[in-house]
Write a structure and sequence with these properties.
Shape: rod-shaped
Strand order of the largest sheet: 1-2-3
Structural class: mainly alpha
Largest sheet: 3 strands, antiparallel
Distance between the termini: 50 Å
Number of strands: 3
Order of helices and strands: EEEHHHHH
Amino acid sequence: MEQFIYDESNGLWYERQGDYYIPCLSLPEDNQPIGPWGQRHLRYIKEYRKGLYTSLLLSGKLNSYLADVDRQAQEQLDIIIRQMAQAEGVTEALKAENQMEWVGKMNNIRDRAMEVVNNDLIYA
């Protein structure tokens, strides 16, 4: 029996291992870093969107998809924080005169913005 065979019906090469032929599959090299938002979305799609996860994994697009979700989430978070801080009057002047109040307000704004990003992008 041959070590490698080619199946024209599906375009795959198979390698003989023992009595069986196993498809020769490899994922494309995609070394984009995946940040915390991408990791969070990965956990979500693995558990609740198994079809999407499997499709992305088998097509080799999972890493680039997660890197894109991470980038979009971070951009959305930055925009929302900036807009909320401006709307609530949290400025550099407040930071200079009362630092603890500024930190408290910014932490509150960041937490609310993270909740919006989680609902709109990560767990949607």
